[in-house]
Amino acid sequence: MAYLLLLLAIVSEVIGTLALKASDGFSRLWPSLIVVAGYGFAFTLLAQTLKSLGVGPTYATWSALGTVGAAIGGWLIFGEKMSPISIGGMGIVIAGIVIMQWGSVTR
After folding, report:
1. Residues 41-93: pLDDT tens digits?
2. How far apart are CA 26 and CA 19, in angstroms?
3. What is the 3-state secondary structure (H, E, C) of the chain?
4. Can you tell me the distance from the alpha carbon of 103 to that of 52, in angstroms, rounded to the nearest whole number?
5. Residue 100 in contact with residue 58, Cβ under 8 Å?
6. Model pTM?
7. Could you give the CA distance from residue 38 to residue 57 in angstroms, rounded to a whole number?
8. Dihedral of the CA atoms 99, 101, 48, 52 (nearest 10)?
9. Any idea what the Cα angle at residue 86 is, between residues 91 and 70, rounded to 5°?
10. Could you tell me the CA-to-CA distances from 69 to 7, 17, 51 in Å, in that order?
């Protein structure tokens, strides 16, 4: 269940971040409201996740997959450029999460 909450937190954070871009500096109402809701939901779910998972691996997973998700979303929604080097960097980020999970000790 904790990993499902973490996944939902990541998705909420990515939605909030993409809405932040769409809000045009908080000058557009609906995207601005989505930012507040997305981040609020993301942090609420992250807090619930941390009740049962370690903070290091959880935060690393949340922030890294959020970064990758935002980059992919920016490419798909806003037409932002994605070079082979940036794609490789995302692969390295994901590999880092896997390595951290292998080495993590939970209580």
Report:
1. 999 999 999 999 999 889 999 999 999 999 999 999 999 999 999 999 999 99
2. 9
3. CHHHHHHHHHHHHHHHHHHHHHCCCCCCHHHHHHHHHHHHHHHHHHHHHCCCCCHHHHHHHHHHHHHHHHHHHHHHHHCCCCCHHHHHHHHHHHHHHHHHHHHCCCC
4. 17
5. no
6. 0.90
7. 22
8. -160
9. 80
10. 11, 10, 24
